[in-house]
Amino acid sequence: METIHMSDIYGQYLTMKEEIDAAMQEVIKSTQFIKSGKALDFEKKLSAYLSTNVIGCANGTDALQIAFMALDLQPGDEVITSPFTFIATVEVLALLGLKPVFVDVCPNKFNIDSSKIEAAITSKTKAILPVHLFGQCADLETILSITKKYDLYLIEDACQALGTEFIFKDGTVKHAGTVGDIGCNSFFPSKNLGAFGDAGAIYTGDENLAAIIRSIANHGMKAKYQYERIGVNSRLDSLQAAILEVKLKYFDKHIAARQNAAKYYDEHLSEVAGLQIPARAGYSTHTFHQYTIKTDRRNEFQKYLGEKGIPSMVYYPGAIHLQEAYKFLGYKKAIFHMLKG
Fold first, then answer.
1. Given a cut of 80, is residue 153 above it in pLDDT?
2. What distance in Å separates the CA atoms of residue 318 and residue 266, rounded to the nearest whole number?
3. CA 123 → CA 14, 126, 303, 322, distances in Å?
4. Tens of pLDDT, residues 218-242
5. For the whole model, what pTM was predicted?
6. What is the rounded average pLDDT for all residues in the chain?
7. Half-sphere exposure of 160 toward its Cβ, with a 13 Å CA cutoff?
8. Could you tell me if 182 and 176 are in contact, meaning their C-beta atoms sit under 8 angstroms apart?
9. For the chain, which domains are there?
């Protein structure tokens, strides 16, 4: 029997092997490895795909950190976000001296519960950071209205949702990561659009913010050896960009394959007693970065899948507010109903 992979990166590569190999050889021959050549080409093509400004960076974590650096928030400023996400979402806030304020997530969609956000706003709140977890958008229209009401920034953690579309009530459609002030993306190999190593990108429709972000990602530079702000070294290298540029040509096809696989799972799992398949939000498409199911017999079910040669993982086994590194925030166990912790 053919081996089943959680993410068949090599199998996908084989379908584009000649193009990817040629693109990588082109970069090596050009010796344009940093902030030039394929890196700039890919930024332009992804920008056209998303209809916004795109700034490449080294990884998704850097994308989040640079986004908040660009807003010039001050230590102690509060950012409302989800406690159920990959650690990077909150890690960058702590590194910048910002205070994460957690709001529970929807029990069937796993994204932040927009109906509970307003109650968490204080005089110190400066931004809302929804996470489009597992490939489906959070309730951005409601969140956007809250940010406008309280004059807050909206930063989207869209690292798992490239290709996902948010559908407004008036029929307007926007890509995940392009609704708020800034969107952040990761090209980690298993992501919807994956590199062959770490890579990331930052989106914004604001030209001024785009210039600031580009500067921060390149040591705070405005011209060679001229530095206008404190920055970091976070650049998308051309080899990764060359791979991503090829994959972008087939991206919609790959997303459709994920959605077709999810449809197949829906058809065959929806009638299984005690098993909850992914819920769909009417305001968002779903690109299934993961096909996430719930059951009270999780460990037993995972063991059964393993015995059948079907890989699975638990996302995420420990909510952030209970992690040792974040106990200083003062959250207690069982404060969030959905997370049971």
1. yes
2. 27
3. 53, 8, 48, 25
4. 999 999 999 999 999 999 999 999 9
5. 0.95
6. 95
7. 22
8. no
9. 9-248+318-329 (3.40.640.10)
